Amino acid sequence: VKNYNSGQSVKEAAENYLREIRELAAVPYTVMEVCGTHTVAIAKNALRDLLPPQIRLVSGPGCPVCVTDGSDIDQFLYLAAQPNVITATFGDMIRVPGSKKSLQMLRGEGADIRIVYSTLDALDLARKNPDKEVVFLGVGFETTVPTVSVSIEQAQKEGIGNYSVLSMHKLVPPVLRALAEDEETEVDGFLDPGHACAIIGSEALAFMAEDYGMPGVVTGFEALDILEGLAMLLRQRAQGRSEIEIQYHKIVKPEGNPVAQALIHKIFEPVDAAFRGLGIIPQGGLGIRKEYEDWDAARKFDLPEFESIEIPGCRCGNVLKGQIAPTECPLFARKCTPLSPVGPCMVSSEGSCAAYYRYTQRS
Ligand code: SF4
């Protein structure tokens, strides 16, 4: 494996990767970056401008806020509006629009909604407010789930009964399988998510290459990592290989992190889950096991089911499947901006539309 990093400046290494990419990019090749952090890094470093025109980079469904379905958003908004409930959430969720409102709007109407930086902050809220129900909004892929598991374990250990989690967690392998089986997906290879694969391991994605002939490289988040990941994908094509390789060796192992995996599986189990733009994906999400139902907000509260209503004009679903670039949405930078977002892909800091707006509107 060529590695330009040793003994070279970043500039020299980047030039070498770019030269190799140009040499290997004889015919068109579409690469999907699965993770929102990749989307931001690609936009921030203007990598699209450096690549030959044959290489097309499209964004995928790796931004957890963006793939949270409208029906789930309306459900947690309903819960957040209940008296006696404190909703604890990461900051990205606060402005995500449901069919009528957002958490921010509810907060303006008097709902008790707190931004937390970890699940243990949310648990602390429950300790300090024993007369209230504290609900943590569990949104994220495998990367964030172990800390949610720890908070539930700790709540059980301390007998904290007024803490619960509304699990809307998602799993990377099923969503990639859904993409591979979607006839409208036109992707030749994937930059696979470094953070999620640190937990699940690259072997968890081997089926993509074996069953669907779609290679992938688990890639880090520096510009140089991404260029190397692209070069590795193109080498596979040049050599007639289809494998899941690791570029991000310092963090990712083929088998992943067994301790984190055990934490996830102790508290959670796979369930069918609704994804924005992709519909219901079998076993695509995580629900809380019955043994921990006392900390499962979905069982604890009588939550109505909501329909999945599309936001009028928003094409987030197509963006999340790599079918269009954010700039192809008619509302992009007109009616929809980070200050006045229409859809979640413009709200989240990892959303494709927000990344395009922030880094391409200036150039
Ligand atoms: Fe949705 Fe706005 Fe993105 Fe268009 S630009 S797809 S309206 S988030």
CATH topology annotation of the largest domain: Rossmann fold
How many domain regions? 2
Total helix count? 17
What amount of the residues lies in strands?
15-25%
What binds here, in terms of ligands, is: iron/sulfur cluster
What is the radius of gyration?
21 Å
Largest sheet: 5 strands, parallel
Quaternary structure classification: single chain
CATH class of the largest domain: Alpha Beta
Give me the count of strands: 11
| Gap between N and C termini | 35 Å
Shape: globular
Named CATH architecture of the largest domain: 3-Layer(aba) Sandwich
Series of secondary-structure elements, N-terminal to C-terminal: HEHHEHHEHEHEHEHEHHEHEHEEHHHH
In what order do the strands lie side by side in the largest sheet? Answer: 2-1-7-8-9
How would you characterize this protein structure?
- By secondary structure, the chain is of the alpha/beta class.
- The protein folds into two domains: 10-62 and 172-246, HypD, alpha/beta domain 1 (Rossmann fold, 3-Layer(aba) Sandwich), CATH 3.40.50; 66-171 and 258-300, HypD, alpha/beta domain 2 (Rossmann fold, 3-Layer(aba) Sandwich), CATH 3.40.50.
- Helix content is 40%, strand content 18%.
- The chain has 17 helices and eleven strands.
- The protein has helices at residues 10-24, 36-44, 47-50, 64-67, 70-80, 103-108, 119-128, 145-158, 172-181, 194-200, 206-212, 223-238, 258-267, 297-300, 316-320, 344-347, 352-360; strands spanning 29-35, 55-62, 85-89, 112-115, 133-138, 163-167, 189-193, 216-219, 244-246, 268-275, 279-288.
- The strands form three sheets. Strands 2-1-7-8-9 form a five-stranded parallel beta sheet.
- Helix 1 runs parallel beside helix 12 (223-238) and helix 8 crosses helix 13 (258-267).
- The model has no long low-confidence stretch (mean pLDDT 94).
- The structure holds iron/sulfur cluster.
- Iron/sulfur cluster binds at residues 313-316, 319, 326, 329, 331-332, 336, 342-343, 345-346, 353.
